[in-house]
Each structure stands twice: as C-alpha cells, then as structure tokens.
C-alpha cells in the first residue's frame, strides 16, 4: 500500500506494510491405531500390586499400628479410608476392647469394600478394596490355637 505525504513541496511516498501472520499449511493425518484383540480371560486378569501403584504414580503403603485403647481405632480407619493397608497388633489391648476394635474395623472395611484377616495371635491385616491378599496363612491359623 502506498501513501502520499506532503512535506513542504515534496511528496514522499511510503510503503506501508500490513502485518499478517504467515499461513502455515499442515497435513492432517489420522492417527494410526492397532486393533488388539485379547481373549476375555486375559482382559479380566488381576494386576500386580506393584503395577497398580506404578500406574498411579505412588508407592503402596502398609501401616503398622499397635493401639492401646479403643479411642485409637479412628486413626486406623483413617488409614484405611486413605487406601492404605494396616497391620493391627492388639497385644497391648484389654480383651473386651479387642472385640470392640475388631467390630469397628470390620464395619470400616465393609464400607470401603475391603477385607480384614487374622494373620497371627491378636494381629489383623486390614486392606482396602484394591488389595488382594493371597497365601496359606489362613489354613495354618485354623490348625493352630494362638
């Protein structure tokens, strides 16, 4: 574009350029996808605990707790609500309070779809829903008296 400006008796022509962003052409391609078919049995397989933790970006935690009174059971429930497994040692709790603690924890794991298992004399493992416990310790507990 040209403009005429008058300065005194002279006419000055200036080229005025309008700035426009350059137009860039890109080829748009559809992403290639592979169709993977798996047998139904493999698709429903259980993942390792390590792979689940790695996919979430954090490590799986197990908390060890040794309560002395019933009032500490809420802290154990908070660990379970935070999706941490808890090993509870009830050796230092009086017999009547042990039963109350186990009842409370049984209700807690029920609400979070978890599990509670006896793993030793007055020792219990409470797990959230995404933890699967396997092994033969349950069979041994039934055979021995603690």
TrEMBL record:
Keywords: Cell cycle, Cell division, Cytoplasm, Septation. It is found in: Cytoplasm. Its main location: cytoplasm. The keyword Amino-acid biosynthesis does not apply. Gene3D superfamilies: SepF-like protein. Residues 10-28 have a biased composition (Polar residues). GO terms for cellular component: cytoplasm. It comes from the Bacteria. InterPro entries: Cell_div_SepF (IPR023052), Cell_div_SepF/SepF-rel (IPR007561), SepF-like_sf (IPR038594). Residues 1-39 are annotated as: Disordered. The keyword Cell division applies. GO terms for biological process: division septum assembly; FtsZ-dependent cytokinesis. Signal peptide: none annotated. Pfam families: SepF (PF04472). Belongs to the SepF family. Homodimer. Interacts with FtsZ. Cell division protein that is part of the divisome complex and is recruited early to the Z-ring. Probably stimulates Z-ring formation, perhaps through the cross-linking of FtsZ protofilaments. Its function overlaps with FtsA. This is Cell division protein SepF. It comes from Caryophanon latum. The lineage of its organism: Bacteria, Bacillati, Bacillota, Bacilli, Bacillales.
